[in-house]
Amino acid sequence: MSPTNDTRPPLPPFTEASAIQKVRQAEDGWNTRDPAKVAKAYSLDTRWRNRAEFATNREEAQAFLERKWAKELDYRLVKELWAFGGNRIAVRYAYEWHDDSGNWFRSYGNENWEFGADGLMCRRYASINDMPIKESERKFHWPLGRRPDDHPGLSELGL
Fold this sequence. Notes:
The protein is an alpha+beta fold. It has a single domain, classed as Roll (Nuclear Transport Factor 2, Chain: A), CATH 3.10.450.50. The chain has helices at residues 16-32, 35-39, 58-71; strands spanning 42-50, 53-55, 73-85, 88-98, 104-115, 121-133. Strands 2-1-6-5-4-3 form a six-stranded mixed sheet. The longest helix is centred in the first third of the chain and has 17 residues, at 16-32. The chain is globular and about 45 Å long. The termini are far apart. The mean pLDDT is 96.
């Protein structure tokens, strides 16, 4: 891991409560759709696999996010803790978005995360599937930005 003065509490090793907090922080960050802000949660030498794309540092991860949110419009994401241990967390998630032609999708995925002692994510492995949906089938209706605390999570929505 490259040295950095940044730390991102909570720090590993994770408890159930701190893993849940880390997952929510990641969800909140991604829901900003701010690539520069989100990229700061990753180590300088982070390694990603996202579908068929690979990133080998923070700069490449930020560029990926810029491309992603230029394509995935009105993006809203919900993440849920699946498992944790030591410095690793597994999550499942779903997000809704539409393309520039107005076609809506719900993307389902799983991620495996590994963190450095500083709490920055150094490994992110994502598997994602896109399902076309009708706009009337959307389940994520909060204003763009952070999911409200009273909005149901994935389990409550049956996803």
